[in-house]
Amino acid sequence: MMMRPRRLALIAACFLGGCFSVEQPYPEKTYYVLEAQRPTTDPPAQDGSVLMVTPVRVAPQGEGRELVYRQSPQEWESDFYHEFFFPVQAMITDATREWMQASGALQVVATETGLVAPTLYLESSLTALHGDYADIDHPRAVMEMQFFLTEPKGSEMHLLLSREYHEEVPLEALTPEALVAGLDKALADILQEVESAVAEARAPKGPR
């Protein structure tokens, strides 16, 4: 009976001294890239317009890199273990520049300090980028953006286009991979509409 307290003391000392090793596996982070797959089309002839795509403005709730889930109208979650590899602003800005450049109708520049001065400016803001799981039977990727096309006229900027785009893409699975694929499609759908709207805004206006 006298040995029991000593045995307990030895076990406690062994724990404190690190005699036992209990490994706790931690999940690793997974990183994603947001991109827009543009359909292959025959490019139209350029008309000499030079477009500057300015960096997209991102709402405060979209400034982080973690994937965001809407679980209910009042409940939102960010996923620490699944996030974008690059800032959202940089990915969407680059995707927009590449998309408009690939359209073939415009010369796209990144800054105003180049050899060719911009004749058009495309500004944008991102107001929503998340997975909506409030209706668990119909999960979807949600993206919402605003675009503004302006043209310098002397010392003023003339507004040619101001439009808001909202896309919801049904998800095939409740996984981060499916969400990113849905956001990719939403971005491509929005940029396709923006390209058409920019072409329409630039089209010569006939006499009234």
Give an overview of the whole structure.
This protein has a single domain, classed as 3-Layer(aba) Sandwich (Rossmann fold), CATH 3.40.50.10610. The protein has 208 residues and is of the alpha/beta class. It has helices spanning 3-17, 88-102, 176-202, and strands spanning 30-32, 50-53, 57-58, 66-72, 75-84, 107-109, 120-132, 140-153, 156-170. Strand 8 (140-153) and strand 9 form a beta hairpin. Strands 1, 2, 3, 4, 5, 6, 7, 8 and 9 form a 9-stranded mixed β-sheet that branches. Helix 2 (88-102) crosses helix 3. The protein has 3 helices and 9 strands, in the order αβββββαββββα.
Descriptors for this entry?
single chain; 208 residues; alpha/beta; Rossmann fold; 9-stranded mixed beta sheet; 3 helices; 9 strands; elongated; disordered N terminus
Concise overview:
With 208 residues, the chain is of the alpha/beta class.
In CATH terms, the superfamily is: ABC-type transport auxiliary lipoprotein component
Basic shape: elongated
User: What is the element string, with H for helices and E for strands?
Assistant: HEEEEEHEEEEH
The major sheet is characterized as: 9 strands, mixed
Layout of strands and helices, then pairs:
Elements lengths: L2 H15 L12 E3 L17 E4 L3 E2 L7 E7 L2 E10 L3 H15 L4 E3 L10 E13 L7 E14 L2 E15 L5 H27 L6
Parallel strand pairs: 1-5, 2-6, 2-7, 3-7, 4-7
Antiparallel strand pairs: 4-5, 7-8, 8-9
Helix pairs in contact: 2-3
